[in-house]
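User: Structure please.
Assistant: Input sequence and predicted structure:
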Amino acid sequence: METTKTEGVLSETAGNVKETIGSLAGDVGMQLKGRAGELRGKAQQICADTTDLARDAMSSSPLAVLAGAAAIGFLLGALWASNREG
């Protein structure tokens, strides 16, 4: 997953540069595209970190992760069933 995090950092940096260039040039469209790229890079980094955390949790205590996943699945199913009845 390190490549995904690296890609996120690069995307964030490129977006930041594009946003700065757009700001200097007075191009609002370029600023918005740069900001979007920056946010996409940050989101990609967060996803990579979350994946690493989930992998570490799964390897250290798989039964606890399985119980948590079952509880979340049960809650989502209960919410979905209650919305279908109402």
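The chain has a mean pLDDT of 87.
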